Structures are given as C-alpha cells and as structure tokens.
Amino acid sequence: MLEVYSWPTPNGHKVHIMLEECGLAYRVHPVDIGKGEQFAPDFLTISPNNKIPALVDPAGPDGQPISLFESGAILLYLAGKTGRLLPADVAGKYEVLQWLMFQVGSIGPMLGQAHHFRTYAPEQLPYAIDRYTQEAQRLYGVLNKRLAHATYLGGADYSIADIAVFPWLRSWKSQGVELADYPHLKGWFDEIAHRPAVQRGVAVLADARRPLTDPQAREALFGERQRQQR
Ligand SMILES: N[C@@H](CCC(=O)N[C@@H](CS)C(=O)NCC(=O)O)C(=O)O
C-alpha cells in the first residue's frame, strides 16, 4: 500500500490524480498545512522542505522502501513504477518532461505568487500584484499556444505533464486570469476536468479544504514557523 502525505492543494492534487489514473492502492495521511503539521519532526524526515506532497512506497526498487518528496519526482516515480503516462521512446519522453519541468519551474511558483499577492498578502502591493498577474497571464498564453498545435501538453497522448499542470489552473480566477480568453487551453482544461480519475483525485480530502486566511494558517504558512526552519 502506498502511503501519501498530502493536503487538498494543487501539488497534492497532482499526486492524487496520478494515483487514481494508475489505479494504485494508497492511503492518505492528511498534513494540515494551515495548522503547521508540515513542521512535525516525523514529516520532516520524509519531506525536508516542510511541504506536501510526500510518498512512501514500502515496496520500492528491489523490494525496499523508498520515500519521496517533490510532486514532480513523485509523478516520475509512479510513471516508472507503473509504465503509465510517460512515453517509453526518448523523443516522446522528453517532449513530456520539458512540459513537466515547465510546470515545476514556472507554472507552480509563478501562479502561486499571483495567488499569494492577490489573496493572502496582508497589504495590497500593486507592483507585486501586477508583476505576478501579468506573469500568470503570460504563462497561460504559453500553454494556450502549445495546445493550439498539440492535443495534450506532451503531444498526442495524455501524460504526467497534463496531470501536473491541470490542478494549478483550477484557481484561475484567484490568479487574475480569465480562462475563456485562452480557448485552446480552456478546451483542454474542460476535457481533463471530466476524466473520472481526475474527479476522484480532486475529491481526495476535499472536505478538509478551507481558505488558508485565518491567523493560525497565516502564521504556519507565512510567519515565524517558516523562518524557524532556517
Ligand atoms: N515544489 C513542491 C512544492 C510543494 C508545495 O509548495 N506545497 C505546499 C502546498 S501546495 C505546502 O506544503 N506548503 C506548506 C509550507 O510551505 O509550509 C512540489 O511540487 O511538491
């Protein structure tokens, strides 16, 4: 049984969707990042960056346990374990990997900052709001152009690149974006949103989801607890 340490956020959803797409058996251990549970010593041993998601596979390589943090690494591990959602041929594989890296390096961090400055920052900072909103809109444009010429981000087939990007776009409103302005991307988004495994994946821990704007959550996510990790 795979052990998943997670919370219902975009990075958590990436892993939940992958597990559902692959039909793998897993148990979810909620890590309430609004209550500071990401700083628990036991969790830090498997996720040293105090972030969800993390995965423990008791039956890893050579039958030995393996533990992983970083959602992109977890998607790659599960693709390797199952032989699913990542092409085996070199060209196809790197077509997918470049869009996976684009999500990890740009989509996640930049859309996260747009959401932060528009929703969570204690004061309105027009420079930061403009900078990250415009960057979010530019990134949506990059995806839209790609999907004008490809059915999926990695090419002809649905892959871990689509699974990585999709959960980030569910919050387009709070990133200052109008999804309908990107018609190729919207068509792709709507199709993926209807996949049964995606619907099951985003439903994981859905009851626990709440806005992370209360003082306890602000302190855990943006306050002194973070600086104590230095
Ligand atoms: N690069 C990491 C980012 C993970 C991440 O930012 N997780 C957030 C939730 S989406 C988190 O756990 N935040 C808690 C914290 O920063 O203390 C990944 O892709 O796994």
Automatic annotation (TrEMBL):
Gene Ontology molecular function: any one: transferase activity
Q: Mind telling me which Gene3D superfamilies this protein's record contains?
A: 1.20.1050.10, Glutaredoxin
Indicate yes or no for the key word Transferase. yes
* Entry-linked CDD domains: GST_C_YfcG_like, GST_N_Ure2p_like
Q: What is the recorded name of this protein?
A: Glutathione S-transferase
Q: By its UniProt entry, which InterPro entries does this protein fall under?
A: Glutathione-S-Trfase_C-like, Glutathione-S-Trfase_C_sf, Glutathione_S-Trfase, Glutathione_S-Trfase_N, GST_C, Thioredoxin-like_sf
Keyword terms, alphabetized? Transferase
Which domain of life does the UniProt lineage start with?
A: Bacteria
Species of provenance = Roseateles puraquae
Q: Domain named GST C-terminal: which ranges?
A: 89-215
Q: Which residues form the GST N-terminal domain?
A: 1-86
Q: What is the similarity comment for this entry? A: Belongs to the GST superfamily.
